[in-house]
């Protein structure tokens, strides 16, 4: 009976969708929700550009007020960079969670519903991103390959957060359960999608270069930057929708068994260990960077060197 049940399950369980099918489904969902996606993308772009303008204005005001006080400018710039990075991560958490909600929602979401979900889940997404980044960083230190494996294993963790309310380490462990024993299948699907995005990016750059031949350098630079920014903001939702289709295919092609869920406890131990290791590495790099900046600020200016007498006429 057990063997018969296993054979029936193998026959009835759908296989993991091909890269073409995943991309097609992601594009269809993009088309169906394009108004909401464009609205969120516009808000995301506006918030990012607004942050850059505010930080630039503060820096310019500081330069005019301090009038060459280099230590104060360096320290103030470091504080502003830290605040700007945290703000950008917060924006990314809010809007990426909203895009992920669109990817797995059973029914279409309005712009307000998607934004509200992003607002409510931003903190959880931010924490998940920190854990995932330190996990991958800890793996990359060990000859790169473990980092690639950890990235693949955690590739759909955000959807475990959005759809299953798994947080932090638990979301990555749930993603591990879905991807386990299919790492290479998932890996080459991610590679195919990435290669297509790179080719699309190069195609836009070639188009910009062709246009630049008929306009001035300033106009060409403005067009190039605008196209790059537009490409980034339009492709980001597509990437999340693609990963959402991959998550749904993983979930339906091999539903989790009680044994697989029980193994998530062991996975959490590995995730916590490598995340702590990666966090220490990242903290060490940041500490060295800050130490170098402080030494630069504290170092006295070098005295002017005199020219040898035989160079003086």
Structure overview:
The protein is mainly alpha-helical. Helices cover 83% and strands 0% of the residues. The N and C termini lie far apart (103 Å). The N terminus is likely disordered.
How would you describe this structure in keywords?
disordered N terminus; 313 residues; 11 helices; mainly alpha; single chain; 0% strand
Strand content: under 5%
Structural class: mainly alpha
User: Ranges with pLDDT <50 over ≥5 residues?
Assistant: 1-12
Q: Please work out how many helical segments DSSP would assign.
A: 11
Please estimate the helix content.
over 70%
Largest sheet: none
Mean pLDDT: 81
End-to-end distance, in Å? 103 Å
Task: Calculate Rg over CA atoms.
Answer: 25 Å
What is the ordering of alpha helices and beta strands? Answer: HHHHHHHHHHH
- Counting DSSP E segments of at least 2 residues, the number of strands comes to 0
């Amino acid at each position: 009976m057990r063997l018969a049940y296993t054979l029936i399950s193998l026959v009835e369980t759908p296989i993991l969708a091909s890269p073409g099918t995943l991309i097609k489904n992601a594009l269809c969902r993009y088309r169906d929700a394009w108004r909401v996606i464009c609205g969120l993308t516009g808000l995301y772009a506006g918030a990012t550009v607004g942050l850059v303008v505010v930080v630039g204005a503060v820096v310019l005001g500081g330069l005019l007020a301090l009038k060459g006080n280099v230590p104060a400018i360096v320290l103030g710039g470091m504080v502003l960079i830290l605040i700007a990075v945290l703000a950008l991560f917060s924006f990314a958490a809010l809007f990426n969670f909203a895009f992920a909600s669109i990817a797995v929602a059973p029914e279409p979401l309005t712009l307000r519903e998607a934004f509200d979900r992003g607002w409510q889940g931003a903190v959880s997404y931010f924490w998940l991103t920190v854990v995932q980044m330190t996990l991958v960083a800890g793996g990359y230190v060990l000859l790169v390959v473990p980092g690639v494996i950890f990235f693949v294993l955690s590739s759909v963790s955000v959807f475990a957060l959005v759809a299953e309310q798994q947080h932090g380490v638990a979301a990555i462990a749930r993603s591990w359960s879905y991807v386990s024993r299919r790492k290479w299948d998932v890996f080459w699907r991610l590679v195919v999608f990435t290669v297509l995005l790179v080719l699309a990016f190069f195609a836009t750059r070639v188009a910009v270069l062709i246009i630049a031949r008929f306009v001035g350098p300033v106009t060409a630079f403005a067009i190039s930057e605008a196209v790059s920014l537009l490409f980034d903001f339009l492709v980001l939702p597509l990437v999340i929708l693609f990963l959402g289709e991959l998550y749904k295919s993983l979930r339906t092609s091999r539903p989790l068994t009680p044994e697989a869920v029980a193994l998530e406890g062991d996975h959490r131990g590995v995730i916590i260990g490598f995340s702590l290791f990666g966090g220490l590495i990242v903290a060490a790099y940041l500490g060295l960077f800050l130490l170098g900046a402080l030494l630069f600020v504290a170092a006295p200016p070098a005295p002017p060197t005199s020219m040898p007498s035989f160079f003086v006429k």
